[in-house]
Amino acid sequence: MLKEKAFELDQLHRIIETYLVPYVQKVDQEAYYADQFLKELGDAGYFSTTGKTKAEIILDRVFVVKETAKVCMTTAFCIWCHLAAITYLTNCDNQHLKQHTLPKLIAGDVIAGSGLSNPLKSFTHLEKIHLEAHKVEKGFSVNGALPAISNIGEGHAFAFIAKVNEEESVMFFTPCDTDGLTMKKHTNFVGLNGSATYGCKFDDVFIPEENIISYEAFDYVQQVRSEFVSYQIPLGLGVTAASIKAMEETLDISEGVNRSLRVQPQDLSDKYDELYSEFIKLVEENDLTWEKVIRIRLEVAYVTLEAVQAGMIHHGGGGYVKTSDSARRLREAYFIVNLTPTIKHLEKIFTENASN
Ligand SMILES: Cc1cc2nc3c(=O)[nH]c(=O)nc-3n(C[C@H](O)[C@H](O)[C@H](O)COP(=O)(O)OP(=O)(O)OC[C@H]3O[C@@H](n4cnc5c(N)ncnc54)[C@H](O)[C@@H]3O)c2cc1C
Fold it and tell me: Contact 176/207 with Cβ under 8 angstroms?
């Protein structure tokens, strides 16, 4: 495997060991939301950009998501949600959001989510945009519902997009504690139940002008999508690395019977190294184009599925226990399939491009 960059490794691992490892079973089995872990990361400066180049910011964040995903992909996904929100606020022109709200997100004082799945799908004509906004004095009033927004709750905030008419969509940021917003928690997923995922219903929710991320949501999303989708790639890389490690550890049990299995950890390790180094190169060369990012995002999704399946086979009967790490990784990995841009969304993009 690739030699990893030792970015604040000891401190990061200490935070993971203290604030995440003891809760992983609870996150998986009891829908426990590890928000304190996210706050600790913020407090220790892991969302900070100070003194870093753009490439260093992205690489460091990728590293944090990957190291977390090795232990708990559900919580790594929560980091992704927060990083997506940070990305939206970092790149917008709204000085109120940048100066007053963004520092709270970076410090981990306010934790945030991203409700962009529906508009992203609407931009590729996979579904109609669910939320409608109409102009009122000093802001907009929003109505409609989104089926799932993660990493939110009391004291949290999130970004979303609503259409004003057929041509115009606006991107907003709102605290969860706002009049007219009803949140219903979902915990009936096969995994990811500790991701604080809620269905959100908007009944005349007022969003003041100072909380507008962009008046031209479609164009704005095109600008930032490569970055926020890049932070999904280490979700799969972390789970894959953890599966490979677990397989390596059982290679010599029962007189080496696992060595006769069709998929060996080395096969997956080779694929992991190839994808990870290709991705790092894109970041370092400032070449994160949409087409290149989603190609890697798709390949990582498939390799992750291969890794968690091989992990189950290598683990044997022990893996078939509900609470085993292999079973957790298998269930969590299927979320990468269904996280927007989903595998079917990505395959549609590549099929259409190929036929153009
Ligand atoms: C655990 C979890 C966390 C998620 N977190 C977020 C998030 O933070 N932000 C975000 O924008 N999206 C979130 N989503 C939505 C996700 O990104 C996908 O949009 C979703 O999984 C549907 O993907 P799909 O395109 O395959 O739609 P399909 O499965 O083909 O479904 C089509 C439509 O059915 C509806 N639908 C799908 N799943 C559900 C459901 N469980 N309940 C009610 N209606 C549903 C939606 O309108 C969806 O677009 C989350 C989904 C899950 C399962």
Answer: no
Give the model's confidence band at 254: pLDDT under 50 very low, under 70 low, under 90 confident, else very high: confident
* Best residue among 75, 185, 331, 340 to mutate for probing ligand 1, ranked by most atoms within 8 Å of CB: 340
Backbone angles phi, psi at 352, to 5 degrees: -70, -40
Q: End of a domain among 220, 253, 286?
A: 220
Alpha-carbon torsion (49, 50, 55, 57), positive or negative? negative
The closest residue, in CA terms, to atom 27 on ligand 1 is 338
On the 0-12 / 13-18 / 19+ scale of CB atoms within 10 A, 146 is buried
Measured from the CA of 191, which atom of ligand 1 is nearest? Answer: 1
Residues 270 and 341 in one domain: yes
Residue nearest to atom 15 of ligand 1 (CA): 148
Residue 203 in tokens: 């009944």
- Its pTM stands at 0.96
Tell me what the mean pLDDT of segment 188-204 comes to.
Answer: 98
What's the gap in Å between 147 CA and the centre of ligand 1? 6
Do 37 and 116 have their domain in common?
A: no
